[in-house]
Amino acid sequence: MTDEIDPTCYKCNSIQFCTVGRASKMLDNCPMKISPEIYKEAREIYKNDEFIKKSTNVASIVEAQGYIRWPRLKDTVEYAKGMGFKKLGLVFCVGLLKEAERVAEILKKYGFKVVGVCCKTGSFKKADMGVPEEYIMMSKTGYRIGWITCNPVCQALLLNKAKTDMNIICGLCVGHDITFTQLSKAPVTTLIAKDRSAPHNPAAALYSHYGNEFFTIDIQESRKNKKKASKQ
Ligand code: SF4
């Protein structure tokens, strides 16, 4: 498949076509034009898969009920209630222990049973997992601060064992969140997307001058490095 055939909705100026069904000029590669079979398949899934039907409807109801007013944690609570979930799993980064504690406390007050697993569970050493020595983080004083690996596999297996109805990610690293989601038997939602550079708000980098500067410089450097590597 070429780039022209794959969807690029992020470039679309005719977004009203799909958002409100108003006729307007579509992108040549609008998936609604190119892949009608996918929309047909999706309708069948919504009709025949009981979990997907219920989950999609509950999510839309929660969106309408709390639109703009509710924090995401309240959306999460109402979604879980709407789905009839009773036992929730919380997987959190050790750096967000305080936040996880507060989230668990709030969820319990809403009547849920809460199971929680920290990312460092198991104390597996990064060196034993094949992480190269130079990536086992040291502080500026030489004190080794990151020699235990995050352990999303154990987090998922422990919550699978606890038979949670839904699992909530509270600040897992990029990639560790993927491993966790892949192995979790219960459906997974993200409450906090970790971003140490901007108090766990990844969108912040898109709104500020400093975010723009960071990516301008970083992209220039990565192009330079690519050029250098191709000459070697
Ligand atoms: S689905 Fe089509 S109309 Fe909607 S954003 Fe994508 S390209 Fe635009």
Structure description:
It is a single chain. By secondary structure, this protein is an alpha/beta fold. The chain has 3 domains: 48 residues, no CATH class; 34 residues; 109 residues, Rossmann fold (3-Layer(aba) Sandwich). Helix content is 47%, strand content 9%. It contains 10 helices and 4 strands, in the order αααααβαβαβαβαα. Strands 2-1-3-4 form a 4-stranded parallel beta sheet, with helices on both faces. The chain is globular, with a radius of gyration of 22 Å. The mean pLDDT is 92. The site of iron/sulfur cluster has 11 residues, from α1 and α2.
Outline the secondary-structure elements:
Layout: H1 16-19, H2 31-34, H3 36-48, H4 50-66, H5 72-83, E1 87-92, H6 97-109, E2 113-118, H7 152-162, E3 166-170, H8 176-183, E4 188-192, H9 204-207, H10 209-231
Parallel strand pairs: 1-2, 1-3, 3-4
The structure holds iron/sulfur cluster (SF4).
